[in-house]
Structure formats: C-alpha cells, structure tokens
Specification:
The complex is a heterodimer of chains A (about 70) and B (about 230). By secondary structure, chain A is mainly α. Chain A is built from 4 helices and no strands. Chain A is elongated and about 50 Å long. Chain B has about 230 residues and is mainly alpha-helical. Chain B is about 45% helix and about 10% strand. The chains are: A mainly alpha (about 70), B mainly alpha (about 230). At the A-B interface, helix 3 and helix 4 of A face helix 3 and helix 7 of B.
Chain lengths: ~70, ~230
Amino acid sequence: MNSLQLLASSWPQTWYALPLIVAVSLVYAATRHELMKPLLMLALRTAFSITVFMSVVLALMYWLSAGL
Amino acid sequence: MPNEVAADSHEITIDLRDPLLAAFLAWLIPGAGHFYQRRWAKGVLYSVCILTTFIFGLFIGGGRVVYASWRNNDTRLPYVCQIGVGLPALPAIVQAVRTSGDTPKAPLWRFDGPEGFGLMAPPRLPGQIIPSGMIGRELTENLLGTDDYVRVRDARSGYGPALDELSQWHHDLGGQYDLGTVYTMIAGLLNILAVWDAYGGPVGGVPDEAEEADAKAKAAKISADLQPTTT
C-alpha cells in the first residue's frame, strides 16, 4: 500500500476532527469576548487557522512518508 | 460593584456575582457558572460545545473511555483531563472505589448482562480480585477461605483462558477507543477555560476592529505631527 492509498483509507477518520475544531474554536473565542458578533468572528478565524495548521501538518506527514 | 469587569473594548460590563461559586458551578456542570451569572448566551455555548464533545467521545468509545484507575499496571492518566468536565465524569470515581480493594463490589450501571462491563468502571485485569459470579468460572481462580470473591486468571499462570479486559476493549473498538479518549479529554480541558471565564470574565487580549482602527488613527496623527514643516 503506497502512501496515497494509506491517506485515502484513513480519510474518513479525518472527519472526526471537524466537531473538535468547531468546539475548540467556539470555546476559545468565548474566553476572549462577551458579545456574540466579535466572538463568532474570532471563532471563524480560529477555526480557519487550526484547519490551515493541521493541513500543513498533514501535508508534511504525507511528504515525509511518501518514500516509505 | 467590586465583581464587575469590562469586556469587548469596554463596550459592556459583566457582573460576575460570586466568582468562586461561579467557577465551582462552571466546573460541576459546564455552562452552569455562566447561567448563575446570567450570561445566558455563553452558558448555552459552553454547555452545548463541552457536553456534546464529552458525550460524543463517550459514545464512540463505547462508554469505556472514561474511567478512573490508579492501579500499578493501569494508571489512567487521561482521567486527569476528563475530570475537568465535572459531574459527568464523576461516576468514574464511584465505580473505581466500588470495584477496588480487598472486598470489591460489582460496578453499577452494567451493560450486556451480569458479566458485562459497567459504565465508567475500570477494566478487570489479570490478578484483580472481583466478586464471584461476575465473569465465567473458567476465567477466574478461587481464593482460599472465601467463596464470595475470586481472582481474575492471569495468562502468565500458564494454563487455561485468561481475561485482560483493557486489551479486549482496544481490540474491539480499534481507533474509536483512542478517538473517544481524545474527545473526552479535550472536553475536560475546554471546561477549564470555561471555569476561568466564569471566575475572571473574558481575557480581552484580542483587540476588536474598532480598537485597531482607533490605534491606527492615533499612530497616523502622531506620524503627521512629527513630519517636518516646509516653508
């Protein structure tokens, strides 16, 4: 099994990250703001940052395991 | 009032009432501390986010990922994080106390019949003393001087079948066991943030757009003032 097949086979498990990203972003933003509008804006920015960071880590891990 | 704090660029003030009581309530039931402070929206947000994460993790982990154990061969460190969620994780303490010691009792809230596991009860491990009749006789060894308790057979004894429930759980649930553990741990850690928010109010470390625009305008004015005038 090459790394692309491995990535494809584990893809469904990646969806488990989605509820966590939503919950962590909302709770983190709620510790910074009291009003809903700035709270939700910060939650969106946080969710985006987490998604980008985790995608970079995933790409890095994929690249590192490509030759294995 | 002494317990009022400013939030969101001083647009509003929050009455924290009794911060210590609010923090305790926030730990006990996620969101309860904010309801006590009449911060309804944030109470709903915290309770929905944290309880949903915890219950979902418990569900995908088959009800077995939250348990307290401080035995030599099974110290459950994730529970240190899971206890952060408060009351929903406390049954694990009850189960651990009931099932440990030299005269253990059967766990409460048992699934799958009399031989099944109890919700949030620690796994039965080789060498553990349990009440007789909880699992098949072929998996246990008799103890001298009592019929009320038996010892779970150890595979290292060299004969007969053995029971290692923790390994069995990992085998049955696969990656779901680890995912459930992570979900419940994160729920507990998120509730620590909620407790802090109930105690001290929002951190306010992130400036709003209006505040940023105001700072930029001030910087531009200072820069303009410093420009040399030409005649």
